[in-house]
Amino acid sequence: MFTKKFALIAVILSFVVPPMSMFAQDAGALLDLLVKKRLISDQEAEEVRAELTKEASTTSGGKWKLSSPITEIELYGDIRLRYQYNGGQTTDNSPLGAHANGTAGHDDWQERERERYRLRLGLRGTLADDWFFGIRFETNASSRSTNITFGDDTAGGNGPFAKNSDTLNVGQAYLGYKGFKDITLTGGKMPNPLVSTLMVWDPDINPEGLAEQWKHTYNFEFGGGSTTAAAEGYSKEGGKGFVAPAPTEPFKLKLDLFVNFAQFVYDDSNPENPLGPRATTTSQVGRVRGSQLIPNTDAFLLAWQVGAKLTFPKNIFLQVAPTIYNYTGNGDTFNIHYQGGSPFVTNAVSLAQNQTGINSLLIFDVPWEIGWKIGELPMHAFGDFAVNLEADQRAKAALHPGYGDERYAYQAGLGVGQLKQKHDWQVDVWYQHAEQYSLDPNLVDDDIFDGRQNMHGVAAKAGYALSDAVVLSVTWAYGWRINDNLGTGGTPIAIGINPLDQYQFFVADLNIKF
Amino acid sequence: MKLTYLILSLGLAFGMAEAKGERLVIKGSDTLGAKLVPQLAESFKAQHPGTTFDIAAEGSTTGIAAIIDGTAEIGMSSRRAKSSEVGAANAKGKNMKPTIVAYDGIAVIVNSGSSVKSLTKKQVEQIFAGDVTDWSAVGGSGGKISIYTRNTSSGTYSEFKELAMKKRDYAKSSQKMAGNEQIAAEVGKNSSGVGYVGMAYTKASGVKVVSIDGATPSVKSVQDHSYPYWRPTFYYTNGEPGGLAKQFVDFTLSSGGQSIVSRVGFVPVK
Hints:
Order of helices and strands of chain B: HEHHEHEHEEHEHEHEEEHEHH
Distance between the termini of chain B: 59 Å
CATH class of the largest domain in chain A: Mainly Beta
CATH superfamily of the largest domain in chain B: Periplasmic binding protein-like II
Strand content of chain A: 35-45%
CATH topology of the largest domain in chain B: D-Maltodextrin-Binding Protein, domain 2
Largest interface: A-B, 19 and 22 residues
Shape of chain A: globular
Number of helices of chain B: 11
Number of domains of chain B: 2
Number of strands of chain A: 22
CATH superfamily of the largest domain in chain A: Porin
Shape of chain B: globular
Strand content of chain B: 15-25%
Largest sheet of chain B: 9 strands, mixed
Helix content of chain B: 40-55%
Number of domains of chain A: 2
Oligomer: heterodimer
Radius of gyration of chain A: 30 Å
């Protein structure tokens, strides 16, 4: 008798709660209900529960042990294989160094081809009482790259296929609290909480510090519910009749308002109070040589963003997110005035000028996006506009006082399609223009135009989903120098040329997400 | 001839000793093993002369581990075996079979001099998790709350977390006791004390039981599950019990055994 009942319960539960890893715990409520209804005894329920627990313990999910405060956890990541080409050309008139191997000539191209991979492996979850956390391990120690180049670490005696560069680093480690209505508080090394574009912020960069986010959704309905006059129609029996009128749909609007504040530790100066007299610069810094006290306060990047996304019926949306970026302090790495290179010195001297200083950056940025559909085909237009409100001072400190108007950066593009599932495709094309004193050169995306300022050009990206989790994509970009009297500021990421007179970039990626 | 006789005599002697002097090893829960099972064992021995018991009541975790390791025939437990324990048993070819032998209500006790008579489930969670540290926050007359809990090998320890604390951790200030009697004794001595014990231990001097959302642990409230902190208690065996273990399980579930269950302060299964 019991065997039959046991089998019946197990069959019922197997339909109601299929995944065995969750079987025992989810079946508990059903077993309790069966006991309460006196359909089975406590002992019978206990034996079913024990059997389910035993079966669950043999599944892969059942072997994971999670601490009890975890309410939800997700393992995720991606692996990408990449072919990458970077090419850059020198000017045709800059002074040349002594002719030698590795020294730039006029109209000289430097080109690189690399086969690369990346791995990102993350864990994020929610905890009891509205807390959450996330960690992600990434290949490559650079903040702006997760790529490892095949065969780049053969030197050093570890032979071909060495592992010197194949290291995992902590890319994200953050925790947060969502206990207040509409508010998310996050601290740690986190995914960028700000709405941004490649022009301003490389998506590989995970900032460190604090973020406070507020988001509220308002739903509006206009009209609807009324009916139009009944239309004359025909019944399928052939007789003349009337088609019941359909009530008109209300016009629905959704408005997401959001506010993002961020306080990121850009550069920790250590120690803040050193022993003995403070150090001075020993090289040319702006107009001062050798005598400028090196600042030793921490540098913070502060951001204030307010934004709105207005969604109309039929997937039409408009999003805009004005943002102010400001910097306080200098740190001990970015505390030298930015110069950004020069076409009037040799390439080596130009490259040696400061490319990373964060002096005089007060950036007003407006990323935006508009989405719509043509038939079933998703389309979107996107762009960004940024202006450095302190570009005059930045140009002056770089010994180019007449170029303070080189303060604007903008991007505009058009996209067709959307990569969501197998056989989806997407093509984006855009134009990008970033003047020499417009943006923080340490944060801009390093693929498009090698992370340089004073560059403009076009880029295109096309992708196709081979499966729900696998995307094949290609990206191409071509850029030119904007102002021939200035260098192309920014740390050379792939190409050791400044000014970059022309630049070309191409990658083909096979990306698997899990 | 003499040698053959001697061997036969020794063999008979050993055989008789084994038949008459069977030994049952029971390990696990202090809740069951401190009072109930010893009394059941005494009664069983009266009906089965020569049987001896080896009872070790050091917490449910030790009882379940003993079944996995094969060092006991019966594992007493005041909680269900965890999936990790079931998995470990499975890996060793053991089959954890639970048998409900009694029900219990985990009573929240305070010092008999305390002005607190009732608590809500939320307040119990707040007290034991350390969110609330003064009795005045839960309707008492003030004073720093002293929390007494069982130790981590106890089934009651983890069962109370599950039933009353949404699986949260105990307050850091909580003091861990080896058994129910020690908790009752400490709460009885401390006017600001609070702890939890099985129903069989609520008669200790100097303590009183507080109602939870208006319900107190009783035979009726545990049987109809209206008391929020009710729980089954178990004998775990490796598959269907056999031999002496089966006899003892059957005896525990018999009317005689269940009357002992009632007498000790637990709630019978029948």
